[in-house]
Amino acid sequence: MKPAGKRSNAPIFWSLFGAGGMLAALIGPMLVFITGIAVPLGLVLPADAMSYPRMLAFAQHWIGKGFLFAVVALFLWHAGHRIYHSLHDIGIHAGMGARLACYGLAMLGTVLAAWWLLAIGF
Amino acid sequence: MADVAETRKFIEIEVLRYRPEQDSEPFLQIFEVPFTDDMSVLQGLQYIKDYLDGSLSFRWSCRMAICGSCGMMIDGKPRLSCKTFLRDFHPGRVRVEALAHFPIERDLVIVMDDFIDKLESIKPYIIAKEPRTLEQGEYLQTPAERDVYEQFSSCINCLLCYAACPQYGLNPEFVGPGIMALLHRYNVDSRDGGAAQRMDVVNAEEGVFNCTAVGYCSEVCPKHVDPANAVNQNKTLSAKDYFLRFVTPKGGAR
């Protein structure tokens, strides 16, 4: 009988992955519709719904900031984790390189999103 | 009346052979086997062993999908050969191979030491929460308490879920679906108090997070156990324990 191995730190990444997946499932399609279809084609929403002043005001409000940060960061962690595991599935085994590339990019995106959201001011 | 010999049906069974003392690697051998509509693939193999080639090796016992011995890859899918019928492949040929993801001992017999080791590591028995003396009587349980674990207790250790799991195929260190279902069966039993010990297996690097939620394990299970569900529930339990272990009393894994 073999003893249980070292505790995995996967829960950190799995939780971020799960949160991002949940958020993507709940609002992803809606975001694609608004930003990619409705606003550019002038359907349903007013033409200036995503104009620069409106979006700036949105990003300057603390609720808007929180929303943008959650969407950008969690979507990135979700994607990073999914890609990391998919690389493993197709035979590129998860070494430090794959880990750094996938989670590193998500981390970078998270830091940049936080930085820019704070830089825009309140 | 039609001649019996004329109406007799034959099917080609293509069997993966490997006899370590004479074969350098496994190869496929085709046997032509007479069959009737009520014959299982296992019975086909038994016909081969009895009448065509006595050296063919395979595991079997009960012939009624309860012992879990006769798991094989049949036409590329993990199935119990006693529960799979030759008629479903006729007039085509049926290919029978050793279970995927395991080393081959001989022909269709696989080496299952890895599974047995893992099975021992999860202490697959009830570790009484509050030991009772004979005078105190039996450990009582309500039907609702039994419902929580009952489906997981149907596991017959046939290993089909291991042959189905792509993650076990890539990394045999992974504890795997069947063991997770059994571990969960004891952890959620109201009479059991051993969850904290077993959670070390769940939480380990070889543990539950190797699963990528493919779900094929539950699809191939001949006893309608849902190992993928046990794995998923334990991902949540393990994550909860990971983050809350410093604020909950010892044994917070439950």
TrEMBL record, chain A:
<protein>
    <submittedName>
        <fullName>Fumarate reductase subunit FrdD</fullName>
    </submittedName>
</protein>
<keyword id="KW-0472">Membrane</keyword>
<dbReference type="Pfam" id="PF02313">
    <property type="entry name" value="Fumarate_red_D"/>
</dbReference>
<keyword id="KW-1003">Cell membrane</keyword>
<keyword id="KW-0812">Transmembrane</keyword>
<feature type="transmembrane region" description="Helical">
    <location>
        <begin position="100"/>
        <end position="118"/>
    </location>
</feature>
<keyword id="KW-1133">Transmembrane helix</keyword>
<dbReference type="InterPro" id="IPR003418">
    <property type="entry name" value="Fumarate_red_D"/>
</dbReference>
<feature type="transmembrane region" description="Helical">
    <location>
        <begin position="12"/>
        <end position="39"/>
    </location>
</feature>
<feature type="transmembrane region" description="Helical">
    <location>
        <begin position="59"/>
        <end position="79"/>
    </location>
</feature>
<dbReference type="InterPro" id="IPR034804">
    <property type="entry name" value="SQR/QFR_C/D"/>
</dbReference>
Automatic annotation (TrEMBL), chain B:
<dbReference type="InterPro" id="IPR050573">
    <property type="entry name" value="SDH/FRD_Iron-Sulfur"/>
</dbReference>
<keyword id="KW-0003">3Fe-4S</keyword>
<dbReference type="InterPro" id="IPR001041">
    <property type="entry name" value="2Fe-2S_ferredoxin-type"/>
</dbReference>
<keyword id="KW-0816">Tricarboxylic acid cycle</keyword>
<keyword id="KW-0001">2Fe-2S</keyword>
<dbReference type="InterPro" id="IPR004489">
    <property type="entry name" value="Succ_DH/fum_Rdtase_Fe-S"/>
</dbReference>
<dbReference type="Pfam" id="PF13237">
    <property type="entry name" value="Fer4_10"/>
</dbReference>
<dbReference type="InterPro" id="IPR006058">
    <property type="entry name" value="2Fe2S_fd_BS"/>
</dbReference>
<dbReference type="InterPro" id="IPR017896">
    <property type="entry name" value="4Fe4S_Fe-S-bd"/>
</dbReference>
<dbReference type="InterPro" id="IPR009051">
    <property type="entry name" value="Helical_ferredxn"/>
</dbReference>
<dbReference type="InterPro" id="IPR025192">
    <property type="entry name" value="Succ_DH/fum_Rdtase_N"/>
</dbReference>
<keyword id="KW-0479">Metal-binding</keyword>
<protein>
    <recommendedName>
        <fullName>Succinate dehydrogenase iron-sulfur subunit</fullName>
        <ecNumber>1.3.5.1</ecNumber>
    </recommendedName>
</protein>
<keyword id="KW-0004">4Fe-4S</keyword>
<keyword id="KW-0560">Oxidoreductase</keyword>
<dbReference type="InterPro" id="IPR017900">
    <property type="entry name" value="4Fe4S_Fe_S_CS"/>
</dbReference>
<keyword id="KW-0411">Iron-sulfur</keyword>
<dbReference type="Pfam" id="PF13085">
    <property type="entry name" value="Fer2_3"/>
</dbReference>
<dbReference type="InterPro" id="IPR012675">
    <property type="entry name" value="Beta-grasp_dom_sf"/>
</dbReference>
<comment type="pathway">
    <text>Carbohydrate metabolism; tricarboxylic acid cycle; fumarate from succinate (bacterial route): step 1/1.</text>
</comment>
<dbReference type="InterPro" id="IPR036010">
    <property type="entry name" value="2Fe-2S_ferredoxin-like_sf"/>
</dbReference>
<comment type="similarity">
    <text>Belongs to the succinate dehydrogenase/fumarate reductase iron-sulfur protein family.</text>
</comment>
